[in-house]
Amino acid sequence: MANLTPDSIALTDRDGTVFEVPVRLSTRARRMSLRVDPSRGGAELVIPPGLDLDHAERFAQSNIGWLRTRLAKLPARVAFEAGAEIPILGIPHVLRHRPDQRGGVWKVEDPDGSLELHVAGEAAFLARRVADHLKAEARRHIAPRARTYATQLERKPGRITMRDTRSRWGSCSSRGDLSFSWRLVLAPEAVLDYVVAHEAAHLVEMNHSARFWRVVEHLMPDYERHRRWLKRHGGRLHGYG
Predict the structure, then answer these.
(1) Taking a C-beta distance cutoff of 8 angstroms, is the pair 165, 179 a contact?
(2) DSSP string of 23-46?
(3) CA distance linking residue 95 with residue 105, whole number of Å
(4) Residue 76 binned pLDDT confidence (cut-offs 50, 70, 90)
(5) What value does the mean pLDDT of the chain take?
(6) Does an H or E element contain 217, and which?
(7) Does domain 85-237 fall into CATH 3.30.2010.10?
(8) Backbone phi, then psi, for 142, in 5-degree steps?
(9) How far apart are CA 96 and CA 195, in angstroms?
(10) CB atoms within 10 A of CB 203
(11) In the chain, what are the domain boundaries?
(12) Triad 14, 17, 19: Cα angle to 5°
């Protein structure tokens, strides 16, 4: 049987495999739900206030077969460590630790054309330095594109920021501030470009009406295939780091 704690539930499959599932109380939830979120790399049981926890336990346990199948389909997580392969603008780069060097992070192309990302300093700081480098690269590629698209639409964006959002790839505030997930720098360049065009279009239409999509199409006529890529593969980008 499952063992319930205030913030998690442990589910035991028939073969003895135990799945630790966080439990989240939500005032917005009308009913309980068991979810698998690729961006978090795991499951979550959402329950509304006042729900009997024994009921939640039985519900989750009855869906363990579904849970196991969905978890098995999640992409493997890739830590930022020496030897790991990560995409930058969709192109694989192998991380190499260079403790004897200085200079932070730099790219090296091997004679065979393969790419490496060399990281100087102590091993304890390698993951943070890689993440910082990717955030800087995201800003370097995204900010100029956002301003270019805004100019094409005769608009001027406000602040342009990079974040690690999980529920959306970008956003546009009513003041024209644009925010993007730095993880877009891991996607193919055209996909990153689509998201920037999408958010720039919100400077004209703060909705997802037919008019909005016409603005996106004006900026990027082939946006649909890049949108499909993001829906199909975007969850993988949250598995890095």
Answers:
(1) yes
(2) EEE-TT-SS-EEEEETTTTEEEEE
(3) 10
(4) confident
(5) 91
(6) helix 210-219
(7) yes
(8) -85, -50
(9) 30
(10) 20
(11) 3-72, 85-237
(12) 115
